[in-house]
Amino acid sequence: MSTQAPQKLAARPAAHQDPRIWQSWLDRNAEMFASVQAGARIGVVRRRELALGRGEMIVWERNARCMRAGVEPFTGIGECDVEVLLALDDAAQAALLCDGPEVARRLVHERRLQVFVPGAPADISRAGLDEFIDTLALAVPQH
User: Fold this and answer.
1) Beta 113-116 vs 84-88: how paired, if at all?
2) How many CA atoms lie within 13 A of 88 on its CB side?
3) 3-state SS, residue 29
4) What residue ranges do the domains of the chain occupy?
5) Roughly what angle, to the nearest 10 degrees, separates helices 19-28 and 90-99?
6) Whole-model pTM?
7) Which secondary-structure segment (H or E) carries 97?
8) Which fold has domain 15-135?
9) What is the pLDDT along the chain (143 residues), one digit of tens a residue?
């Protein structure tokens, strides 16, 4: 029998790409997505995979009732079908999962969370993501 203390699931790198963990996070923070329109999508990708231009991406998609987390292939910023793409290192993903959305501003300031808008900035408003962006205190790059 092991005497080691169990690790927090969010602290293990593989957990960062587990949609069940992100679904729990989305459920705990549901009020942040109240104004998001059905069909709106936010991608979460590891910075390493962003640099490679390939890998897996967690996708948060709004259905008629709530946000749902899933996994999709990531093939580059220009190829992903999301309104907002968040790129984080493993430690930043763990912080966001464990500490909640309140840490987003600090992570951006530390350059451990990057925000990309693959399409037109107007897509953010149409998708109802303005409030989400404001809640996280994220700056949206303008084209």
Assistant:
1) antiparallel
2) 24
3) coil
4) 15-135
5) 40
6) 0.84
7) helix 90-99
8) Nonspecific Lipid-transfer Protein; Chain A (3.30.1050)
9) 334 333 344 444 456 679 999 999 999 999 999 999 999 999 999 999 999 999 999 999 999 999 999 999 999 999 999 999 999 999 999 999 999 888 988 998 899 999 898 988 888 889 999 888 877 766 555 44
